[in-house]
Amino acid sequence: MKQRKIPMRKDIISGEMFPKKELVRIVKDENGQVVIDPTGKKNGRGAYVAMEPELVKKAWEKKSLNKILDATIDDQFYEELYNYVDHKKARKELLGK
Q: DSSP assignment of 19-79, as one string?
C-alpha cells in the first residue's frame, strides 16, 4: 500500500518543521482581524504555532505574531491562544491521539 505524504509546516517561533496536524494556524483576514483557525482553511495570511504552551508564552513575550502578521495584536488574543494550545495539548495527552 502506498504511503500518504504528511504535509509539514514550519513553527514560526522555534523554526522547526512539524506535521500540519500538530500545529495551530493563526490567520489575519482581509479585514485585518487576527483569529485562531482550528480548521486550517480560513482565507488570509496564516502563521503556524506548535501545540506547546511554552512556545506561545515565548511568542507573547516577543510579540512574534505582531511582526509576522504585520498587525497589532493585544494581550487578550495571546492569552486566548495560550489557553487554546494548553487545552489542546492536555486533551491530546489525555486521549493519547
A: EGGGEEEEEE-TTS-EEEESSS--SSEEEEEES-HHHHHHHHHHTHHHHHHTS---HHHHH
